[in-house]
Design a protein that fits this description.
Elements lengths: L1 H28 L33 E4 L2 E5 L15 E5 L2 E4 L5 H14 L8 H7 L14 H6 L16 H22 L7 H4 L9 H6 L51 E2 L3 H9 L5 E2 L2 E2 L69 E7 L20 E3 L17 E3 L5 E3 L8 E3 L2 H4 L51 E4 L5 E4 L14 E5 L15 E5 L7 E2 L3 E3 L14
Parallel strand pairs: 8-17
Antiparallel strand pairs: 1-4, 2-3, 4-18, 5-18, 6-7, 8-15, 9-12, 10-11, 13-14, 15-16
């Protein structure tokens, strides 16, 4: 009787264990089963493939994470001009990445070196690419000052390698960010086995380059369509070799390339928006307790003074700026800010996000087109003025149209400088049209730079019967423009000579137009007044100075933060 009872108990236990093991196996295998169809995901035989083991976004070179949140944008502690320029408004910024330091001369020189090797300036097709990207070193000259040393040495001499680059206009800064995006993604794809090893240095020329957008849209056209560089199938270390079928022959994998769904490709490097830059510079996270800020900071650091109170560095300036008339760095033998012009990056303490030189050293370009006010009624989330939407150009054959040396476009700026609009190997872009805008409520046109402030609906000359406004070509008359700014024209005559037409009108009332960009932060040339992160100024996007540099940003994809929320810092 006892034996049979023991046997029955053992049998029951075995059944329970078997059931629990089978349920566990079902749970473990359910990770790769679709919740929509029940089909197997990442089946080596084919079907839906997805990066189910993806963890989180990889931090790009030089970047640090800035956790997003809400803040008061435009709130300045000192407003001696009583300007309409800084109207406080509540904004929310998503998490993003930002360069730890300003872009240095060495970083920009790497860009110039790449352009010179890939697009040699001595070739007729490429002669304007390198010169168009080169900084304007003449910005250092002064009518009543001897600055020829900086003119000749600042950009290229190794003594200035870790100093922030200057003489770069807004357009050049934006092009550098695009180039950086392609080089970083190119390196990652090579590391992960999607591109031939060392192809980024050994296999490139003007006809064989890597473009992130080209790779995503038409990978077979990357590197000029060289399938020995752009790997797929069994040559791809990420792709598993296919098993042999019943006939003993293994079918070759086709079209196995990295895509956005793979997780390897990072979002674009770009200039930060004004809201992002100001939020990152203010770094109010250092003043946070629970879900509120304990007061407003005047500078990127805590306190109301520009000098350090720490015993070891007591009296030293916390940023590089002009301290008074004729005083750019104190007297000899005392460190003070230890700089007369710019200074090496990382020479002053970082703010609470870990970002260096968010006040002083050089002011910095941001992405936004300037307007006197921030229209928080239209947007209080990721605010940005400057959207110009484009799409890939499709040729007559139904395929994307590539930029070649023959079809490459150049822009002649108002000051006569010629800059490449795109590079061979990239996809040609055109403005969005009715196919994208018809019956939409969130946008209705390609160019939105003057939306709600300077567009045709904003002017008193707007006529509802004439929806396009202006003359037959859509060009507005001088007295119908919202902002009556100078119009300088540069053209090339039949002999190839550049003709510059300077606007000599004495009736212009402003310098504001759709081609002036915001720059933020104080510089080595500015007084402490401009160190406040909320201060804002503007400058033409095609001009450069000896005190404006830039740093790059990258959008964050996925969760807002990698850390759990904490009551206090």
């Amino acid at each position: 009787m006892k034996v049979s009872r023991i046997l029955s108990l053992n049998l029951l236990l075995a059944v329970v264990l078997t059931g629990s093991m089978s349920s566990c196996s079902k749970k473990s295998s359910s990770k790769n089963v679709s919740k929509a169809t029940g089909w197997k995901i990442n089946d080596p035989k084919g079907g839906f493939q997805f990066a189910s083991k993806y963890q989180k976004q990889e931090t790009g070179p030089g970047l640090v994470l800035v956790e997003g949140g809400t803040f008061t944008m435009g709130k300045v502690q000192d407003d001696v001009m009583h300007d309409w320029n800084n109207s406080p408004n509540q904004q929310h910024v998503q998490s993003f990445y930002m360069d730890e330091t300003e872009v240095t001369n060495m970083m920009y020189m790497e860009y110039l070196d790449w352009l010179k090797r890939v697009f040699p300036p001595d070739q007729e097709n490429y002669k304007n690419i390198y010169t168009g990207a080169s900084p304007d070193t003449l910005v250092w000259r002064s009518r009543l000052g001897y600055n020829e040393t900086m003119t000749n040495y600042y950009l290229r001499h190794p003594a200035y390698a870790e100093y922030p680059v200057v003489g770069v206009n807004w357009i050049q800064a934006a092009e550098f960010a695009k180039w950086r995006t392609d080089r970083v993604n190119e390196s990652v794809l090579e590391r992960d086995g999607f591109l031939k090893k060392d192809s980024k240095v050994s296999s490139i020329n003007g006809e064989k380059t890597f473009s992130t957008e080209t790779y995503l849209s038409a990978p077979t056209l990357t590197f000029g369509g060289d399938d020995k560089i752009v790997l797929k199938g069994k040559n791809n270390s990420k792709a598993k070799a296919p098993k042999a079928g019943k006939d003993g022959a293994a079918k070759e994998n086709k079209n196995i390339y990295a895509q956005i769904s793979s997780g390897e490709i990072s979002p674009d490097y770009r200039l930060p928006t004004e809201a992002e830059w100001e939020y990152a510079a203010a770094a109010d996270i250092g003043q946070r307790e629970y879900n509120s800020y304990r007061g407003q900071k005047k500078y990127p650091w805590s306190g109301s003074y520009t000098r350090s109170s720490k015993r070891k560095y007591k009296g030293d300036q916390l940023a590089n700026f002009k301290q008074g008339k004729g005083d750019y760095g104190g007297i000899a033998g005392w460190s003070d800010d230890n700089a007369d012009i710019t200074n090496k990056v990382k020479q002053y303490p970082p703010n609470d996000f870990g970002l260096y030189d968010m006040a002083g050293n050089v002011a910095e370009w941001v992405a936004d087109v300037y307007r006197p006010m921030v229209d928080d009624e239209a947007s209080d989330f990721n605010y940005y003025r400057g959207n110009v939407y484009t799409k890939n150009k499709i040729g007559d054959d139904g395929k994307v149209e590539m930029v070649t040396a023959e079809t490459q476009k150049y822009d002649t700026l108002s000051n006569g400088k010629i800059i490449a609009r795109n590079f061979p190997g990239e996809i040609s872009k055109v403005p969005v049209d009715e196919k994208e805008t018809y019956l939409r409520v969130n946008f209705s046109q390609s160019d939105n730079r003057n939306y709600r402030d300077g567009d045709k609906q904003s002017t008193r000359f707007f006529k509802f019967a004439n929806s396009e406004g202006g003359d037959e070509k859509g060009k507005k008359k001088d007295n119908e423009r919202m902002y009556d700014s100078p119009v300088h024209n540069v053209s090339v005559d039949s002999l190839g000579n550049m003709v510059r037409k300077f606007d000599k009108s004495s009736k212009r009332t402003t310098l504001i137009n759709d081609n002036v960009r915001v720059y933020k932060g104080g510089s080595w040339k500015d007084r402490a007044y401009w160190l406040d992160p909320a201060q804002r100024r503007y400058f033409p996007q095609d001009m450069a100075t000896d005190f404006i540099g830039f740093r790059c940003a990258m959008s964050r994809v996925g969760p807002k933060s990698d850390k759990k929320k904490r009551p206090r810092n």
